[in-house]
Amino acid sequence: MNSTRLSRVAEAIKQEVSDILQNEIKDPRIGFASVVGVEVSRDLRHAKVYISVLGDENTKRETLAGLDNARGFVRSEIARRIRLRYAPEIVFKLDDSIEHGAKINKLLKDLRYREGPSGEG
């Protein structure tokens, strides 16, 4: 399958899963979660949905548990909303790249502060 079609399907899944999380799933374990990316297999039978969750480790763990519990519902909704021969098996993965980036930015900012405006320590 060509990469353009894979990208379009991944983007469609991302949009639909985002909508499902915001409007359809009422599980209290799922806090403030957002879909940051989707990877689909070449045969479109599997999709990794990367989720960013605001909160501590317990909140993240609970959110993933809620999402895993809703996986069948999400899959059936995707099958209904997107016309594909097979609805992909969904796996939710935690994406902490936003937090990681924020930590790096803070470290760089702290380093610049300690070195002073001229860059000398």
Structure write-up:
By secondary structure, this protein is an alpha+beta fold. It has helices spanning 3-23, 57-69, 71-81, 97-115, and strands spanning 33-40, 46-53, 89-94. It has a three-stranded mixed β-sheet. A hairpin with a 5-residue loop joins strand 1 and strand 2 (46-53). Helix 1 crosses helix 3. The N and C termini lie far apart (54 Å). The mean pLDDT is 88.
CATH domain class name: Alpha Beta
CATH architecture: 2-Layer Sandwich
Structural class: alpha+beta
The total number of structural domains is: 1
- Assembly classification: single chain
What's the total helix number?
4
> Helix share of residues?
40-55%
What would the keywords be for this entry?
single chain, 121 residues, alpha+beta, three-stranded mixed β-sheet, 4 helices
Q: Could you give a quick summary of the protein structure above?
A:
By secondary structure, this protein is α+β, with helices and mostly antiparallel strands.
Tell me the layout of helices and strands.
Layout: H1 3-23, E1 33-40, E2 46-53, H2 57-69, H3 71-81, E3 89-94, H4 97-115
Parallel strand pairs: 2-3
Antiparallel strand pairs: 1-2
Helix pairs in contact: 1-3
